[in-house]
Structure to design on (350 residues):
């Protein structure tokens, strides 16, 4: 029991192997989504990217009733929230282009997370303009200096990892991977698209096997995680066979259905997942707009809940102004969310 406990409280390189992970997703990777992913079989969950400076300007507040931890920005709005129940599995993803700022931000959040992951793949101008995200792929000195600084500053129980994209040439990708692995990271995720590829372009998974074998030959025991186009738990078996990757990370399929980590995902997203998600989001005081957004991304049957009026869950949600909306209460029934939360705690602890 003690061994299990210490394993859970302290991630090692081994925990990044044989895993199915929830990918970092701005907005879509909110706390209730991460808890649902864990409940339905995700082994580790990445939070949405948070920029180092945003963390440095935030204040940590703990809700004494629910235990919710909020990092509130200047206007008092949470820039991210977490809960101690997810800590053993929660990887905080950071956007940074500065080793000192990255270390300061990591020190601020380290009590609430198990690992710090550096975003080296976001192609959006707001990231790349300031040298963050995918811009780091063409500035390997800076990329590696951030990872080295984080590794040196963090205690051993906090893992340091990176998520990159492929470079256009395989040779350049291998050179970059070699440098990154030599910084002392615990694991590496490779989104199998290049910086200029769109999400609708098929991921170049065929390039991954050579990279996995290359990292294995380096002999540091580092896991390589495949990311790109995996549709769920069953598909992850195919992806691992195809690529040799140690683990698989899922983004959009989990945005559509956070129970996709299960071999038996919830099929009726509207009748089952949506009400449960709403109750949990209320309990965790999740931002209303963010809650609505996450639910709007779910894909499933759009069944009328009110046959007489032919209203669907989504119509009711769209019209609602907050968790206390009367039509919404009618839809989801009992309304504190504490039961949902307790059930998730039970499953995660088991
Ligand atoms: C993303 N992605 C992303 N990546 C990252 O490293 N940090 C982030 O914060 C985000 N945010 C984000 C938001 C949303 C809504 C989407 C859809 C994607 C990219 C994501 O983690 C992943 O690399 C790609 O989506 C490819 O995986 P899938 O979608 O093919 O499984």
């Amino acid at each position: 029991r003690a061994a299990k406990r210490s394993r859970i409280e302290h991630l090692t390189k081994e925990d990044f192997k044989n895993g199915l992970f929830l990918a970092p997703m701005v907005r879509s990777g909110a706390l209730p989504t991460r808890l649902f992913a864990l409940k339905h079989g995700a082994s580790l969950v990445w939070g949405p990217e948070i920029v180092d400076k945003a963390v440095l300007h935030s204040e940590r507040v703990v809700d004494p009733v629910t235990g919710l931890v909020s990092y509130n920005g200047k206007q008092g709005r949470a820039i991210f929230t977490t809960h101690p129940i997810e800590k053993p599995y929660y990887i905080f993803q950071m956007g940074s282009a500065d080793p000192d700022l990255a270390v300061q931000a990591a020190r601020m959040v380290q009590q609430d997370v198990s690992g710090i992951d550096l975003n080296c793949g976001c192609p959006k101008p707001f990231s790349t303009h300031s040298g963050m995200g995918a811009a780091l792929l063409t500035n390997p000195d800076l990329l590696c200096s951030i990872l080295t600084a984080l590794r040196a500053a963090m205690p051993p129980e906090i893992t340091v990892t990176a998520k990159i994209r492929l470079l256009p040439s395989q040779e350049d990708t291998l050179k970059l991977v070699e440098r990154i692995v030599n910084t002392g990271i615990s694991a590496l995720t490779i989104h199998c698209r290049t910086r200029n590829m769109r999400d609708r372009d098929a991921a170049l998974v065929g390039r991954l096997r050579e990279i996995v074998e290359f990292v294995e030959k380096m002999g540091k025991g580092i896991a390589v995680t495949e990311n790109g186009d995996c549709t769920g738990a069953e598909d992850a078996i195919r992806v691992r066979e195809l690529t040799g990757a140690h683990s698989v990370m899922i983004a959009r399929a989990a945005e559509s259905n956070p129970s996709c980590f299960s071999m038996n995902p919830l099929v009726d997203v509207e009748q089952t997942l949506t009400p449960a998600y709403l109750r949990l989001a209320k309990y965790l005081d999740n931002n209303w707009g963010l809650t609505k957004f996450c639910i709007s991304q779910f894909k499933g049957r759009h069944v009328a809940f009110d046959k007489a009026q032919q209203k669907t869950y989504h119509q009711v949600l769209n019209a609602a102004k907050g968790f206390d909306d009367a039509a919404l209460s009618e839809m989801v029934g009992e309304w504190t969310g504490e039961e949902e939360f307790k059930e998730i705690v039970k499953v995660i602890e088991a």
User: Anything to note?
Assistant: The longest helix spans residues 269-283. Residues 23-26, 28, 48-49, 93, 119, 121-122, 163, 191, 199, 227-230, 250-253, 255 surround FNR (CB under 6 Å). The radius of gyration is 20 Å.
